[in-house]
Amino acid sequence: MLSIKNLHASVEGKEILKGINLEIKAGEVHAIMGPNGSGKSTLSQVLAGNDAFEVTEGEITLNGDNLLELETEERAREGIFLAFQYPVEIPGVSNLQFLRTAVNAMRQHKGQDEMNAAEFMKLAREVSKQVDLDPAFLKRGVNEGFSGGEKKRNEILQALLLQPKLAILDETDSGLDIDALKVVSDGVNALRAEDRAILMVTHYQRLLNHIVPDYVHVLAGGKIIKSGGRELALELEERGYGWLGIKDEETADSSAN
Amino acid sequence: MKPAPTLSTAFLHPAGQSLPEPLLALRKQRGTALVDMPLPTRKTENWKYSSKYLKLTDDMAISLPAEGKTGSSLAVPGYKVAFLNGVMMPEACEYPDLDGISIKSFGDLSDEEASDLADRLDSTLDNKAVQMARLNSARFEDGLLIRLKPEAVLDQPLFIVHEVTAEASGSAFPRIFVDAGRHSQITLVEEYISSGSAQVMVNTVTEFNVADGANITSIRLNMEGENVQHIGSTGVLQQRSSRFESHTVGFGGPLRRHDLQVRLEGEGAECKLNGVVVTQGTQHYDNHTTIEHVAPHCNSEETYRNIAADKSHAVFNGRIHIHQDAQKSNADMNNKNLLLSNGAEIDTKPELEIYADDVKCAHGATIGQLDEISLFYLVSRGIGRRQANVLLTMAFINELVEQIPIDAAKQTALTRLNTFFKQTFEQQ
Questions:
Q1: Which end of chain B is more exposed for a tag (fewer CB within 10 A), N or C?
Q2: Tens digit of pLDDT for each residue in B23-80?
């Protein structure tokens, strides 16, 4: 599904990713863990195609296609979905209008008919319930005045509507209380499918109690320094990042985590 | 030193004589006062950013003929008055005889009515601030007088379609005077459109005399063509506990100027002024508003948004003047501006003059671009860049468009906005 080879990326001339190699197959759930500033969010943004980040070396392919040649919207239509760490508030665009525009852009890309307002409303209401988001939120501006938890649920709502091939979840657990974490995790677990891969980026392992990964990778200093199964996350929980020779504070001042 | 340019004498000869005598006399007197009237230059403070767009040539001095095919066969969901080149077209007007409400062409007024009107024309406007409105007073060929008796309520909106047919160069001087009695209510939609391509000027004046407790809603849609220089002035005089609400949606042109002056003269009067302007290409649009808080306990709320694309130029000047006796005034002015291109220009100037000490007065003005992070968020969901730009640009003005209380007017504005978006973002 997704293949990353020797990926180097910089922001404003500063190299953040220094040679990432990662293979993700359909049906798998991968977790990338690492301290602040290790490059986790940069990796997510690069995959989604944020042009604030410059890829200087290496390649990314999705089902054999060169992802780096595609614009952000083309990547999305090919099945890349990024759940943002900090979802953007867009007053003046209703959530419903935003979601329907996105879903119809996907449908158009697949050669399907667009959904009319009534059809879409029905679908959106159902999926809202699935992530325990009051359908009243559909009428508000995109993420406008949503709490942290509501924003994260709105991200998962989008993933459920857009049915991506690869869902990247960037710190989806941050800012969630236990109940919200459960709702969000249930939503993510509902996404798990044979033909879909999930990449979770997280600082803490608590999310992984709810969404159990097949593989865990430790990212530090812009490289994956260790990979393993689920037990690696538990070990990190117990022993911190120190035993891997990572000084957390060394990179903690970097803003590009 | 080069002498300041003055209005060409060619503009001082009104042609049509089909008005009642008192109005002809008024027009003549106003015309005499215009001899050697200086034209605005870049040194004229309230025309600083716009004088370079004003291009009055002698061939534009002639009044456009008050005949021809009126294109305004447009069906409207309400009553209708049609102006063609500044003159009312009775055959295209549709309104019934209404109890307590009189809707009349200036040409149809009795001498007594005309004499009364002549005494009151220009009374709502500060002529020093709206120099160009004086030209209308010297040149109007016809006009619309709407009188509402106390308690009279117009049950449907009145659409006033101002059309100019620019087959040849010339000018049109439409004029409206609304006299709203105590506790009367009316909603007016003024729509400015054009056909033809010759260089023309539309110089229009609309006045509202608003008695105690009256409630006026005014919608103004400016959608004339690229050959039309438009200079509009609106004066509003408000008495005790009256309310005036205005919604302006304007599209740019070679010159677009609208002066809106509201005078809150009676206690407890309130006004709400909303404005949306979009410009593209090399277009221009200039909104100048003035709110005079003369009496105490009045409220004013003003929200204007400008969007400038390509190499266009938008101007906003919002003046709030709180007089010494206007204690407990509550004034809120907000102007936000969106530049869609590096070549576009927006000039904004809030002006507050406050002479009372117990008032609440807020103002804010910003100029910005579309937010890159919001744009990334939208496209990361598969939404195309063109559509994402449209969504974000529309988001900037949506709140104001949604507030337009007459659906047909809102739809007209939205249709025209969509054309703007199509042209502005088509390369994406």
A1: N
A2: 999 999 999 988 888 899 999 999 999 999 999 999 999 999 887 666 655 678 899 9
Residues within 8 A of A (CB atoms), B 363-392 only? 371-374, 376-385, 387-388, 391-392
Q: Is residue B298 in some structural domain?
A: yes
Nearest-neighbour CA in chain B from A249: distance (Å)? 28
- The model's pLDDT over A17-43, given as tens digits with 9 standing for 90+, comes to 999 999 999 999 999 998 888 899 999
Residue A256 lies in a domain: no
Closest residue to B383, CB basis, from A73, A87, A92: A73
Residue B122 belongs to some domain of the structure: yes
Provide, as residue numbers in chain B, all residues whose Cβ is less than 8 Å from the Cβ of A98: 378, 381, 383, 391
User: Do B161 and B191 contact (CB within 8 A), yes or no?
Assistant: yes
User: Which residue shows structure tokens 């008495």?
Assistant: B239
The reply to whether A108 touches chain B by the CB within 8 Å rule is no
Intra-chain end-to-end CA distance of chain B, in Å: 50
Amino acid at B268: G
> A116: domain CATH number?
3.40.50.300
Cα–Cα dist A15/A221, whole Å: 10
Q: Containing domain of residue A77, as a range?
A: 2-251
> From residue A222, how far is each of A16, A42, A151, B272, B348 by CA, in Å?
6, 9, 28, 56, 47
* Amino acid at position B124, single letter: T
Nearest residue of A to residue B371, measured between CA atoms: A90
Query: Quick check: B211 and B239 in contact, CB under 8 A?
Result: yes
Cα(B266)–Cα(B297) distance, integer angstroms: 9
Give yes or no for a contact between A239 and A225, defined as CB atoms under 8 angstroms apart: no
**Rounded-to-integer distance, Cα B6 and Cα B12, Å:** 12
Neighbours of B123 (CB within 10 A): 11
| Residue B13 confidence (pLDDT) | 78
- Note the pLDDT tens digit of each residue in A186-244: 999 999 999 999 999 988 888 888 999 999 999 999 999 999 998 888 888 888 887 77
Question: How many domains would you assign to chain B?
Answer: 1
Domain extent for B36: 9-369
Answer for the pair A67, A75: CB distance below 8 angstroms, yes or no: yes
